[in-house]
Design a protein that fits this description.
alpha/beta, 293 residues, eight-stranded parallel beta barrel, 35% helix, TIM Barrel
Length: 293
């Protein structure tokens, strides 16, 4: 594992520099061990999304993996889906998250259109993401069709996280965000996708939006850790979009547990600030500068 010390000279949050050991790809891969009563005997992998330096600072002590997801298209930019997200967006937000973290392994999503065209395109895009952001891995969606790409990248020193089941970049083809694997034929295809991704060299994989039994079957069938989102508690780890988990949006997907109601807190704080500004009760002597003596 490598060590990393945060430079706080220009940080608005001025965190305390902490020499730390980054999680590594082998450390994540090693979380796949024998199971007892259906559950892994290793500590489950904790993964959350992060798109900014400050959020990375807050999440990093608690996470094994920080994912700079292309969900930033909707969460940060208000786009209708992940499809319009660009490579520039991913590189810039990835670099911010790397700067704000020192413990978690940072992975960055490959955006739609940046890797599907050819093996060479995929390598060029992934290499740029890693160089520009400093991340340790990339994540790409797709099953058997993407297996050659995963193998090509992995053999050239680019660690890859797979993503099977509900794949948001293919939402137009899938016809929506409904759970996958409801019928036996589709479940078998997704299981085959997962096996292909693992065999191609992905060091772990996200299983999104599938029936619980299918997620269990995949977790038992592949030799790499599985990280569930809308999948099963018996996956080797879990991931959520942080803003969903914190309650920053009114709509909560079925698979999300809201651990707070940050939206209400922000609304209340902004309302209090607005009232004090309009009443001229802010700023007070404590927030203004006056001559001493």
């Amino acid at each position: 594992m490598s060590t990393f010390t945060m430079d706080t000279a220009t940080s608005r949050a001025t965190p305390t520099p902490v020499p730390g050991k980054r999680m590594t790809v082998p450390a994540i891969r090693s979380r796949k061990v024998a199971k007892v009563d259906g559950y892994t005997t290793a500590e489950p992998i904790v993964m959350l999304t992060a798109y900014t330096m400050r959020m990375a600072q807050l999440l990093d002590p608690h996470c094994d993996l920080l994912l700079v997801g292309d969900s930033l298209g909707q969460v940060i930019y208000g786009l209708p889906s992940t499809v319009p997200v660009t490579l520039d967006m991913m590189c810039n937000h990835g670099a911010a998250v790397v700067r704000g973290s020192w413990h978690a392994l940072v992975a960055v999503d490959m955006p739609f259109g940046s890797y599907e065209g050819s093996l060479e395109q995929a390598f060029a895009s992934a290499a740029r993401v890693m160089k520009d952001s400093g991340c340790a891995a990339v994540k790409l969606e797709g099953g058997e069709a993407m297996a050659p790409t995963i193998e090509f990248l992995s053999k050239r020193g680019i660690p890859v996280i797979g993503h099977v089941g509900l794949t948001p970049q293919a939402v137009n083809q899938l016809g929506g965000y409904g759970a996958r694997g409801k019928n036996p034929a589709e479940a078998e295809r997704i299981l085959a996708d997962a096996r292909a991704v693992a065999d191609a060299g992905a060091f772990c994989m996200v299983i999104e939006g599938v029936m619980e039994e299918l997620a269990d079957d995949i977790t038992a069938a592949v030799a790499v850790p599985t990280i569930g989102i809308g999948a099963s508690a018996r996956c080797d780890g879990q991931v959520l979009v942080t803003e969903d988990m914190l309650g920053l949006f009114e709509r909560t997907p079925r698979f999300v547990k809201r651990y707070d109601d940050i939206a209400s807190r922000v609304t209340a704080a902004a309302g209090m600030y607005a009232s004090e500004v309009r009443a001229r009760s802010f700023p007070t002597d404590e927030q203004t500068y006056r001559p001493k003596g």
